[in-house]
Design a protein that fits this description.
This is Protein NO VEIN C-terminal domain-containing protein. With 80 residues, this protein is α+β, with helices and mostly antiparallel strands. The chain has one helix and three strands, in the order βαββ.
Length: 80
């Protein structure tokens, strides 16, 4: 499984959607999840492709750090 993410610059961060997080966390034993990250996506001479490990694999926990203070949740308050 490859997840493709891109940046218009050298920025080294990306957003995972809830569906992507669910998929990355729910791998079967014979599956791998790799992020293909492309920097400078619109400038061919500077474009680079980076293979990044699954952010939810404990073996690669030192590769990533979270950005921001938390996860935003939306909910519905039930009427009494």
């Amino acid at each position: 499984m490859f997840e493709v993410k891109a940046s218009e610059s050298e920025a080294s961060e990306f957003l995972l959607t809830p569906a992507e997080i669910t998929r990355a966390r729910g791998l079967k034993r014979n599956e791998r999840y790799t992020i293909l990250f492309i920097t400078n996506v619109f400038r061919a001479a500077e474009r680079r492709i980076h293979l990044l490990p699954n952010p939810f694999d404990p073996a690669h926990s030192a590769v990533y750090r979270p950005v921001g203070d938390g996860v935003r949740y939306r909910f519905t308050i039930a009427s009494p």
